[in-house]
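Hi V.,

Quick status before I head out on leave. The structure for the redesign project is tokenized and pasted below; the design run finished overnight.
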């Protein structure tokens, strides 16, 4: 099964680029930029990655992002993720970035977006990896702050396909960002939001009905509403599920308890993603492998999950077909 997973071409739809910052690059950038980090060595960093919930992770994740200062730093972080895409056979990726984490430290929006987008352009040229960029608002900040960030992104509109919503979920429901999402829709952006990761399924309803989003990031709490499950099935709204993240942040006790197979068997449009792979012990293949080692997923299930990702991505139908043909070809050879 491991070989089968590794060989299949894949898409990733839920990866925070700041969450791909590995400890060794964090140390190198900290030294280069003269930024203090509260760890003596890589072992200490890894020991700190022992989370109890989403907030305990976010505190460490935002502190880690402090080492990113120059355009080259953003390029290097993104390029390191692209090399992981090559290793994981990811041929299309849609990455989140959190501009407010950086602009609040005096880093310009331009520095961030150009560093990331130049690396993605090089990924297309060197490895034929296609990509899209999703700009997320931090939901623990105000809607006014999100509006300010939205204005800042407009000169770079051609580089950003979609607007998302992330950070501390509990107490910051989608309704808080209704107006800014309306504006983003008017400007032609696609929309997604983290919902139903830690907070209950009512956040998923809000994301759908008040923000008018096209995909739900996480969404695993949907299982507690039969009515919502029926709607997600009927409308085939994609869920970008992140198994390793859910285990590391204690959304589920262990992989055996994870509900991804139940969601899939119900007929929902489920995809597998790595979320913050440098913090959650592995990239996309590892997420699939951990599931397969603990849950009875068939090869057919794996193929369905992978095809769902391509179908739920923001690429043209033509490119979707091309990629899905590749999956069919390689999936058959191995079965
Ligand atoms: N949830 C919310 N915000 C995040 C996450 C997540 O899993 N990862 C990075 N920012
Ligand atoms: Zn996420």
């Amino acid at each position: 099964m491991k070989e089968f997973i590794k060989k299949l071409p894949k898409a990733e739809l839920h990866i925070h680029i700041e969450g791909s910052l590995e400890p060794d690059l964090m140390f190198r950038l900290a030294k280069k930029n003269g930024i203090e980090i509260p760890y003596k060595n890589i072992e200490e960093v890894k020991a700190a990655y022992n989370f109890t919930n989403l907030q305990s992770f976010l505190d460490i994740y935002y502190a880690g992002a402090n080492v990113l200062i120059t355009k080259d730093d953003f390029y290097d972080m993104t390029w390191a993720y692209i090399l992981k895409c090559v290793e994981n056979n990811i041929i299309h990726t849609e990455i989140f970035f959190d501009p407010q984490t950086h602009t609040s430290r005096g880093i310009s929006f331009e520095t961030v977006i150009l560093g990331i987008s130049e690396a993605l352009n090089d990924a297309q040229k060197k490895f034929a990896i296609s990509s899209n960029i999703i700009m997320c608002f931090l939901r623990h900040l105000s809607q006014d702050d999100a509006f300010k960030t939205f204005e800042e992104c407009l000169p770079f509109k051609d580089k950003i396909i979609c607007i998302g919503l992330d950070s501390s979920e509990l107490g910051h429901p989608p309704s808080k960002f209704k107006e800014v999402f309306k504006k983003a829709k008017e400007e032609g952006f696609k929309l997604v939001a983290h919902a139903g990761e830690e907070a209950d399924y009512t956040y998923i309803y809000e994301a759908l009905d008040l923000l008018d989003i096209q995909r739900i990031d996480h969404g695993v709490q949907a299982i507690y509403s039969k009515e919502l499950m029926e709607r997600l099935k009927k409308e085939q709204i994609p869920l970008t599920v992140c198994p390793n993240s859910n285990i590391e942040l204690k959304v589920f006790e262990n992989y055996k308890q994870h509900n991804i197979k139940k969601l899939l068997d119900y007929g929902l449009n489920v995809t597998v993603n790595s979320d913050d792979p440098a913090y959650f012990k592995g990239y996309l293949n590892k997420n699939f492998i951990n599931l397969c080692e603990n849950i009875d997923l068939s090869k057919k299930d794996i193929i369905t999950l992978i095809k769902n990702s391509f179908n739920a991505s923001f690429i043209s139908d033509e490119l979707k077909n091309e990629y899905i043909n590749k999956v069919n070809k390689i999936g058959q050879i191995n079965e």
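Above is the designed sequence. Residues 2-333 form a domain with the TIM Barrel fold (CATH 3.20.20.140).

G. will cover questions while I'm gone.

Best,
W.
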